[in-house]
């Protein structure tokens, strides 16, 4: 995510980290490099120039020239300005109402239908709501079926009227259905449309007028850069939407849309899509995103994701097993599965300060644990319960069953032993240290 921008900004700060004396020329050169970095990230020249003028003014006002660590001070100024450019504060979605109604709009192929399901899953799992998804795309043949498949995956009802081609009627009928069946959130998926298509724009305006939604979210593909920003502007002039959703942000190496869409349409980015899974949706935090762009990681989001998977009762059981040296491969497998639920492995590692740059060229994907899982699944129930019995012949058999060589099996067993030892150390002293640490994180 934003790799090119991160590298260019890092180079611009290094100008101020040299051994030479800091001068106005050094600062001007650094500012010039920051402007180039933004333009290469698909930020318009006008916004890039305004941004760097603000940075320069604050840098000189903050006495960067006489600072002991001018590079660090400049980084702090750029961080704060980036966060401000992207909206400053995180803004929540309005889900008040009985039911609350959310209208989803956007271009064809922007990911509206998938986002509708992700949002329903998010509101169901994080807010305890009972959503109803509405199949309002009456033009794309597979749209209704796609929404139904996604609805089954997350356990959310989908309202559709196969023979009705009037999206206004469908939306109104769906809200009536929601009231009668105890649904407190209605998410209306709509057909993709172009801002230049007057008939389609009139249609979604009619839907808006008919259902008076709490929120209108405009979904846009982050990878389309300035095209996304221009499209958002055209839609906002007609719909006056409440917030933006950037999909496919994990594939956006430049970052132009995320950086500039707020300043162009004056509407906040509320959510970002960061993968294919139904859980791959995050609230947009401008300050945290600025951290990640500048290679500082995002430890707060990482902790939040860990908390979501943290089960107090399971943790207590695990502590007891570790304290008694009973930690086994079944427990190890559970830990792996919890990590996988948190999201893309490379993205998670990138949230750790200092790690993002180190692994940016590494090929780490969601299958990173596949080999480990194959080895553990090739063990018998007795072997998983009691790793001490894994002698040479058993290891050979496991390697054959997992389709790997014995060196990989030996490596995993060694890693398991080291992990067990480390966890034993963490839980020493009455087994309370890990529990205290996790309880503090949860606060």
Task: Explain the overall architecture.
The chain has an eight-stranded mixed beta sheet with strand order 3-2-4-1-5-6-7-8, sandwiched between helices. α9 packs parallel to α10 and α19 packs across α20. About 2% of the residues have low confidence. It folds into three domains: 83 residues, Up-down Bundle (Four Helix Bundle (Hemerythrin (Met), subunit A)); 196 residues, P-loop containing nucleotide triphosphate hydrolases (Rossmann fold), CATH 3.40.50.300; 141 residues, Orthogonal Bundle (434 Repressor (Amino-terminal Domain)), CATH 1.10.260.30. β6, α10 and β7 form a beta-alpha-beta unit. The two termini are 29 Å apart. The chain contains 21 helices and eight strands. With 443 residues, it is α/β, with parallel strands linked by helices. It is 57% helix and 9% strand.
Poorly predicted runs are 429-435
Question: What proportion of the residues is helical, as a percent range?
Answer: 55-70%
* Main sheet overview: 8 strands, mixed
Task: Report the CATH C-level class of the largest domain.
Answer: Alpha Beta
Number of domains: 3
Number of helices: 21
Cα(first) to Cα(last) distance is: 29 Å
